[in-house]
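Hey all, quick one. A colleague (J.T.) asked me to put the NDP job into the tracker so the inputs and the structure tokens live in one place instead of scattered across chat threads. No bug as far as I know, just bookkeeping. Sequence used:
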Amino acid sequence: MTPPVRKIAVLGATGSIGGSTLDVIARHPDRFRATVLTAQRNVDGLAALCATHRPELAVIADPALEGQLAQRLRAAGVHCEVASGHDALTAAAAGPLCDTVVAAIVGAAGLDSSLAAARSGKRLLLANKESIVMAGELLLRALAEGGGELIPVDSEHNAIFQCLPGGRPDLEASGVRKLILTASGGPFRGRTRAELAGVTPDEACKHPKWSMGRKISVDSATLMNKGLEVIEAHYLFGAPVDRIDVLVHPQSLVHSLVEYLDGSVLAQLGNPDMRTAIAHALAWPTRVDAGVSVLDLAASGALVFEKPDLATFRCLALAYQALRAGGDAPAILNAANEVAVEAFLAGGLPFLSIPDLVESVLMELPRADVVDVQSLVERDRMAREVARRVLRCAC
Ligand code: NDP
């Protein structure tokens, strides 16, 4: 029997994950339809995507740009509803126009819409790792209340999901010993601290294997991305921190592994192209063509694995530390990192000072219990304020 056509909201449609998602959707009009598309400020990009994919609703997060978007769509002959603002975006994630939500907004800005999708029982395809890092327990609770399902899009977590029996089972009962996340090592793998002193944002964003947005590219260069992923894996799969390892694998062909009690290690492999994970999550439990070239292992050369250098790439160690501290420490870590990365990209903070800034904020704001979304958002705001003050003092 053919599965019903999925009605998909792509939040962050103008971004890297958004583009890859729309590419997969367009390949399967009999299975998928993009019904809601959103962006922050990129009116031209969003209007062009609407002209191609003909959604029922387009949302621009910046309310000042709603008129401009409506005008562009009229000019292009696109007849869809137009809305703007953060609340409209959150309402769209929970609303009747979609049954599936691809959470591909970057940063903490994606939290409310991820929560709204979870609460309203959608299939949530989570790329926005920051929302689960900030609010892991709350997001899982919302998901349980809503009765929907979460399929990870982050390639490592999607790989683990594929290597576990039944997606997100009880690890103990399934005989899982360890989850092993692979990391490419980023563009600066093998460099010493001295060699990293003067690196520029463009150098940090030149990832050797993946084409991604600028924020996650910097996170990959500092290894904070892997740190966020360790936290994400903890919440997604209920894995204790000591059972989540990181292995550097520069070829980026093995996307992660699961080690079982009997000595078996299952891995998921594929070319480094996010469309594989996206297609898997969209079509699960079936499979569809993602447009990705076939992995040719005979031509790929040796696969290398090594331990991460935690002394040079301190962000990964800080993320483990925040996860061990528990409570809202991961949210504090995430907020401080977002401020640090923004400052680095704007030329206002050296690369090596990113972990220093994050560490200062973690020290000034010791962990507190996570009570609800409001208090979490307040702690996120405080962490950003402290980070900006530390940043001003450092200049
Ligand atoms: P991009 O920077 O390429 O795209 C971000 C998207 O979010 C854009 O559509 C942008 O709109 C929108 N956006 C940004 N800020 C806001 C805001 N405040 N409110 C509403 N929308 C906003 O990011 P990526 O696609 O690289 O990453 C998206 C998420 O997926 C991140 O959480 C990242 O960690 C995760 N991820 C990404 C991977 C990748 O390969 N790129 C791999 C795994 C995970 P506009 O264009 O208007 O600015």
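Adding what we noticed when we looked at it: The CA atoms of residues 205 and 217 lie 5 Å apart. The radius of gyration is 20 Å.
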